[in-house]
Write a structure and sequence with these properties.
mainly alpha
Length: 379
């Protein structure tokens, strides 16, 4: 009988790592957590004991694992940490702390979330989730102990942004359960913030969790609901929502509605693609065209290759995941067209970027690539 993987071992396999690679990654982080650096062979033996459930990692090492994999204690099979102090003893102190929140404090939290967002675009998700969870916990606690709605709403807006970003990064590492929970928190916070725009954005992103779970039909309905929620939102968000719905239609095989949605996104996109209330959206440069190219690949359209070749060089350098996604799209498109050389070229580029990002989502998509037996030139 095949032995069932422990959650810790499953997380390593999901990341595509060997024990040696994990051992080196742990050693690289140990000094920051006050842990000893061990020879790789010794660390590998330790990893085996942890993965087999013979020994439970100490709390500091559990934090290392959470940072490396971007997973929670529950995901990794660790007992949840509990503060143990009754709320009654802390209530007065927490109310006093919450009273100190002012517009400058809210802006500080917003800048912290934005910093994580920019780092995620360049370097990937897993290592940033632990920091995001800390920010989410702090924001949630402050909101719970802030008395007046006019003070709670700005905090809730930042919590929505943080939770939505955590949902997307969780989705990227392949943790659908974690992603769903973050989006549920994001939607609740958006309602607290009384922001239809934030609620629409979180709702649309949650639909991608349904897609990755194989429930495309419900995802398409959720995209439609998100567009309805955001029908009076700024044009930039309405353009983004239309494109998101277009991707959903493309994945469901509905080409007419997919392309119609992208046409609507083009019409809605404003000339100024930066909005102060929507720092989490970017539709500048070739981004929307690249997104349409992704839909064309899902639809198996012949023009997908020429379309994506025309926009991939315009992907901003800091959007590493976007470029990786475009490389995956081109590899799949060339493979479908019977061009082995083109497929291999872009698959190689995609693997290099995916390795840097540690994106389980993109890795799974690239695994669908079927290389032709021999290459042929495209006309």
């Amino acid at each position: 009988m095949r032995k069932v993987k422990s959650p810790l071992q499953a997380a390593r396999h999901e990341a595509g790592w060997s024990q040696e690679k994990l051992a080196k990654a742990i050693n690289a982080r140990c000094p920051a957590f006050g842990l000893a650096v061990l020879p790789v062979a010794s660390r590998k033996a330790e990893i085996s004991r942890w993965e087999n459930g013979h020994v439970l990692p100490e709390p500091a090492m559990r934090r290392v694992f959470r940072e490396i994999y971007g997973r929670t204690d529950e995901d990794l099979g660790f007992p949840s940490s509990v503060d143990g102090r009754p709320l009654g003893e802390e209530l007065v102190e927490r109310l006093v702390i919450a009273r100190r929140v002012d517009p400058q404090t809210v802006e500080l939290f917003r800048r912290e979330v934005d910093g994580v967002r920019h780092a995620d675009r360049r370097f990937g998700s897993a290592e940033r989730l632990e920091r995001l969870r800390g920010q989410i916990s702090e924001l949630d606690d402050l909101i719970r102990h802030t008395l007046l709605q006019r003070h709670r709403a700005p905090l809730a807006g930042v919590l929505t942004e943080a939770s939505t970003l955590a949902g997307w990064t969780s989705l990227d590492i392949g943790s659908l359960k974690q992603a769903w929970a973050h989006y549920e928190q994001a939607k609740a916070a958006a309602r607290e913030a009384e922001s239809a725009a934030l609620l629409a954005h979180a709702t649309a992103e949650q639909a991608f969790v349904l897609i990755d779970a194989g429930n495309v039909e419900d995802a398409v309905e959720l995209f439609a609901e998100a567009r309805h929620i955001g029908k009076r939102a700024p044009r930039l968000l309405r353009a983004w929502l239309a494109a998101a719905q277009g991707e959903g239609h493309a994945i469901s095989g509905d080409g007419d509605n997919a392309l119609r949605s992208f046409d609507e996104a083009d019409e809605l996109r404003p000339s100024e693609v930066v909005h102060p209330e929507l720092p989490f959206l970017f539709l500048g440069g070739t981004h929307l065209d690249r997104w349409r190219g992704n839909a064309l690949v899902h639809l198996g359209a012949e023009e997908a290759i020429s379309h994506l070749e025309g926009v991939i060089d315009g992907v901003p350098s800091e959007f590493v995941r976007a470029r990786a996604s475009a490389c995956v799209d081109l590899a799949l498109a060339y493979g479908a067209a019977g061009d082995r050389e083109g497929a291999e070229t872009y698959a190689r580029q995609a693997r290099q970027l995916i390795s840097q990002l540690r994106s389980a989502r993109l890795r799974r998509r690239l695994e669908r690539l079927v290389l032709p037996q021999s290459s042929r030139k495209l006309r």
